[in-house]
Hints:
alpha+beta
Amino acid sequence: EQTIEPYFILWSDEDATEPEFLLVMPFTPRERPLMAGWLAGRSDGENLGRLIAYKIPHERQILGPAQFEATIGGDPDLSHRLNLWNQGGSSVIRGNIITLPIGNELLHIEPIYLEAAGQSLPELQIVAVMHEERLGYGPTLQDALAHMLRGSTAVMATEGIEGGTAAAESAAQTVGPTQQQRIETLIRQMDAMQEQLRELQREMERGP
């Protein structure tokens, strides 16, 4: 099980003209896998030292980081890859789990690195993401988000990390209207956070 440590993110609320740095720590109830909320310290300008506390309503159940880990371990393809990489002197390094507030939604993100035998610098191999119970993964954050959104009737079309276009479009499975609306809201909010997502990708590429 991964130890959750505080982490910095670029974040902006609806009234902000530009994103700011937050130091974020998610919380889960003792011996329960659900998220209770998160606490963030602001560090820019007149907001330096101010705290933001977000408490998740009791009626809304959001899986926490530990359940995110369990979902990664329970995915046959992903767990098979990790087991293969963790052989022959190579080591899989699990990065710090980031729980990213996106509007009223929460997105779990975990970078996974490979330290090959004889090499001192681990390289980013896979980024895993999860929104509610939807897991996705890929070589970049943008690919992981597209993978997560497959199976939804929603469409995400955004500038890719490298300047191309990433699109996730599928009707492979039917989701309920409430879930579909939340997915569409998440997509719109991610579209408005492209610079923050690109910066997060660059930060993960720097290594654990």
